[in-house]
Structures are given as C-alpha cells and as structure tokens.
C-alpha cells in the first residue's frame, strides 16, 4: 500500500484506484480496503463523491473547527467511459447536429467574445486525420451527435458536482478563506475514441479500432443508441469531438507536442485574498506549481524530509504573486513535456514541438512496430517552432526562420529529459501493448475462496499468452460417481463484465470456460 493515498499523506481516502472507472459500477476503495461495486441501483459516482466530500468536511470541522482542511476532489469525469444519467444528456438533444467543424467555429467565436483568448488568435485548421463533418453519412451523423450530447451532459454534471461541494463550503461560512483550484483535466480532450467513437473504449486500448458500420452493429447488439451513456456501455466519443473541444488548438491528449494536448483551463477562487474577481492571468504555469502555491498561501515551508525520508526538491514555482498583479512577469520560465514520444520544450515564450508520425488513437501492433527499439530515431523527428507571445494558438511554424532557436531548445529538451528521468522515450509503449511490465517472472497466482474485487490491472497477465486454471472444489456428489454432480452450477473464478473478460464456471454439472474479447458481438 506504499503508493496508495493514505501512504502518500492523505488522512482519509474514498474513491477508486487506477486510471478510470465506470460511473455507475466503480470498484470502490476506502483507505486501504477494497469495498467493491456498490449495490445501490441508483448509484452514480459523481453524486457519491459529493456526498462523501461534504460529509468529510463537516466531520473534520466538528472534530477540529480551528484546523484548516485540504480536500482533493478528483472525479473520474469526464474521462472515459462517458456515462451520465439520461436526464443530463437529454438537455443537449439536437445541440450538436451541426457537427464538430461548426462547433469549433462557434467555440472560437465565444472565446474571443468573452476575452479568454487574444483578439489576434487564429483558429488552427483541421488535420486530415479528422474527417470533415459534411463527409459523414447521415445515419452515422446521428450516432456522432448523440456521442457529444452524452459528453456535454457528463461535463455539466461534473461542473454541477464541483459546485455542490463549493456551495456546502459557503453554507458552512468557510468560503471567504478557502482557496480553491479548479483544474479541468490533466491533458487536452481525449482522441482515443478513434474516428468513429466506440461503445467500449477498451477496443481502442487493445488496438482494435472499429469502422462506423461495426459501431452501428455493436450499438444495436447492446440495445440501441439510447443505451450510449448509460450503464450498459463504456463509450468514448469520436476523436473529432475532442479536436473541437480543444479549440483553438491543434490535436489533443497523447500529443504533448501541441497545446491541444497540454493546455488546460484553471480557475482560482479565494475571496479573502483575491479581489480581482473574474480577472484573467496569462503567466506561464504548470501543474507542478500548484503545490508550492498552496504552501506559500498557507505559510508553510517546503518539506525537506517526510517521516525521516529526504524529499526530492519541488520543481514548481509558486504563482501566488499573480493574485495581486495580473501583469507580473512569469516566474516559471521553462518546461519540458513528453507523452509516448510526442514532446515539447517551452522557454521564455518559445515552444519547440516534436510530434511522432502516429495518429494518437492507432495502437495496433503494425503501427507500434514502427517505433520499436532500433526502428525509430528521435533525432529524425521534425521540429516545429512557435512564438507563443505572438502566436497564441500555435498556428505559425517559424522553425525555418529561427534555426538557432531550434538548436537551443532541442539541446535543452534532452538536458531536461535526462535531469527529470524522462528517458528512454517511448518506454511507456511496453505497457500499451502486450505483456505489462512489473510481473515478468511470476507465472502462478493463487486465490482463495471469497477473494474478490481484484482490479483489472492486477489480475494474472493472461493476455496474448496461453494459460491454465486449476481449482479445488467441494463436489457433494453421489457415492461411486465421477465428475460433477448433475445440476451443479456456479462460477469458480471470473474477471469479467458485459463488455468482456473470462470465466471458469459450472453449468448443469458441466465444467465450462468462456472468454469474450472486449464484448464484441459483430
């Protein structure tokens, strides 16, 4: 448990472990205990998080009213699977029938109207990887539009959940002196739904992209389009919706070379300290700056030791100075970015970008093979260069105009990559496809009666390999008979849901094994 939340400093934890979870049926953890899937048929994760968070704050104030609290409200939304109660997605019926190209243009216009982007900003063009909305067949457009209706409802529901927690803080009279950071996302919107979206996002992560016709068949097999967004699918919208959601930038999640993959919205609220309500700030900041800012606001020094263990120095810089001075120069002046080989180097307004020749949602073996050790040379990746002080949306590549700046930022990236242990590049791909890292030598796993709620990432690595299952069973059969008692039924071991998995079970006295690949019924 040394990497679980309680061991990392939290007094209390309630939520899920891992990168994502179903919103209707998460495998829940409380502190160091796996609770499992809630039995309440009306359970929804965002609602439950709100209730637990408010209850915890109230309890903390009851026990120690003079002691400040720290709450990390990290939802599973709006990460895939895109799931939300129907009344939320119904609010957006018909709102996206005009498609992603038009949505992007409308969003860009509103951004300028609100003043959250400069008047000189340009809307970057659509890459050919994303189909034009007008090229989409009419029956498929209906599916795509509903994908975005569900996502919009999902996003509004999440905003509402955050608002309910903030309202509770206000009702307790704590709002004026409570510092709130609302960071929407940890990367740009996700393009992992592929060109068509998917009823089960695990298809993408297993390198099984589906055509539009296959998606239509899968949707029909799982009960129809109205099931998209509910508990009977684990969906993800089409990549072009993510591209539209990242307006005015290029690309999105996984593409750390471009602002669409690394720039996120942040809102800060602290009424007692920040008087510029609704003010905008444009200083460069990074997620590593949040912790130093909190420490400065609380008047606490950076910890040099925790439980006697020397700490790696924090790399971020407090941006509390921006609370009073919106025009103060940035203090975080350089920053590297890297995900799956896509990388960038920022310094003093300049951004050098290297994007691999790989579409983010293509994780099939053929594509990944091109980037295997010995087949890919990072030095051959083309560098783009942008002056973000003059080019807000990363539109004009000036690499040919400033070759010295390209060389400077290239050398700086490799220096930073070495310093912060980014190397070797593409090391993450070992866990994207095939056998996961961490269990290369273990080939036998024992589970005892009653063991349950083993998370998917910790089950035996049966994928892409042969395996066997043996079980010791009580078989109260008739004397002198062999085999299983007629009529005996039940599951021996399983790791599965309606969207795939395996099970060893007994049915009518016969031993059976089944394996469903990603719940595909095509």
Element layout with pairings:
Blueprint: E1 14-15, E2 28-30, E3 33-36, H1 45-63, H2 86-90, H3 100-114, H4 138-171, E4 180-184, H5 202-205, H6 212-221, H7 239-245, H8 259-262, E5 265-269, H9 290-298, E6 305-306, E7 309-310, E8 334-339, E9 342-347, E10 350-354, H10 365-369, E11 383-387, H11 403-419, H12 429-432, E12 490-497, E13 500-507, E14 510-516
Antiparallel strand pairs: 1-2, 2-3, 4-5, 6-7, 8-9, 9-10, 10-11, 12-13, 13-14
Which features characterize this protein?
alpha+beta, 4-stranded antiparallel beta sheet, 3-stranded antiparallel beta sheet, 14 strands, 522 residues
Encode the helix/strand succession as letters.
EEEHHHHEHHHHEHEEEEEHEHHEEE
- Describe the global form: globular
Helix and strand content put the structural class at alpha+beta
Q: Tell me roughly what share of residues is in helical segments.
A: 25-40%
Mean pLDDT: 92
Quantity of strands, as a count: 14
Global Rg: 25 Å
Low-confidence stretches: 433-437
Strand content: 5-15%
Structure annotation, total helices:
12
Largest sheet: 4 strands, antiparallel
Straight-line distance between termini: 41 Å
Question: What's the arrangement of strands in the largest beta sheet?
Answer: 8-9-10-11
Structural account:
With 522 residues, this protein is of the alpha+beta class. The strands form five sheets. Strands 8-9-10-11 form a four-stranded antiparallel β-sheet, covered by helices on one side. Residues 433-437 have low confidence and may be disordered. The protein has helices at residues 45-63, 86-90, 100-114, 138-171, 202-205, 212-221, 239-245, 259-262, 290-298, 365-369, 403-419, 429-432; strands spanning 14-15, 28-30, 33-36, 180-184, 265-269, 305-306, 309-310, 334-339, 342-347, 350-354, 383-387, 490-497, 500-507, 510-516.
